[in-house]
Amino acid sequence: MDYTVKKIPCFSPHRNALSGQVFRFRIIDDTHTELVAYGRYLQIADLGDDTYAFSCTEKDFDEIWHRYFDLDRDYDKIISSIDKKDKYLKSAADFGYGIRILKQDIWETVISYIISQRRSIPSITTSVERISKLYGKKIIIPRLNDPFVKPLYDEYYSFPTIDEMKKATLAEITATGVGYRAEYIMAAIDDFASGKITPELLDSRNDDDAYEILTSMRGVGKKVANCIMLFGLGRCGRFPIDVWIERIVDRYYGGRFCEERYPGTCGIMQQYMFFYERMKE
Q1: Which of 61, 103, 109, 223 could staple 4 via S-S, CB 3.0–4.6 A?
Q2: Known active-site residue 223
Q3: Under 8 Å between Cβ of 265 and 75
Q4: Candidates 3.40.50.970, 3.40.50.150, 1.10.340.30, 3.40.50.300; correct CATH number of 4-71+100-231?
């Protein structure tokens, strides 16, 4: 089996799997993680000394995973830009060292974050997996040899495309456990299947325009729109505020975090804060 070895500083597959920004990235054991994205299964083996083996060809790594893991961005430089007086953020960045903003498929991110409203990460993951099995394609996983290990599950499915979800019914979507959000998902399918909104349209627009398009969708408010922009469009200047971030901002920043202090990177700071607050408790 072909695989690719890369030395990557400031990269932690385990912390990314636990970061809360993605729902199909899992820890297998102390040195192995796995994920499903862009219709592919990927396993990562930690070889030590910031060196990792990826269960893909060099071509797939360059064309898909390099961008997915945001490897053109200097995260050490971003961390060094943190205001030295901001002890909380510095602690959060140290705790979350190696987390990167993953460039996820836009359509999958839209549906995943519509599902995410007022739900726990495990329950979001369950619904995303059910939708994938219901409408997506089964992924053929090649035999994995050393340095990889056996995958966690026997079957994996790609997240369905817009065309694959056009056949969805409200009853089927409701049965995946998404509750009242089923109607929002059906509305999103209509918006994208009709061509009213497309991933390409969102990707091509500036932040203000993309935000306006997203918030025009049924069931997409400020927080969900900002999450889609941050994790699907790679707009790292967005700062989604959920109950965790609201609590942090109230407790440590007097009710307002100065996003302007970190133009273009405050979304990364948000992710460090979110991870730190959730995991340290």
Answers
A1: 61
A2: yes
A3: no
A4: 1.10.340.30
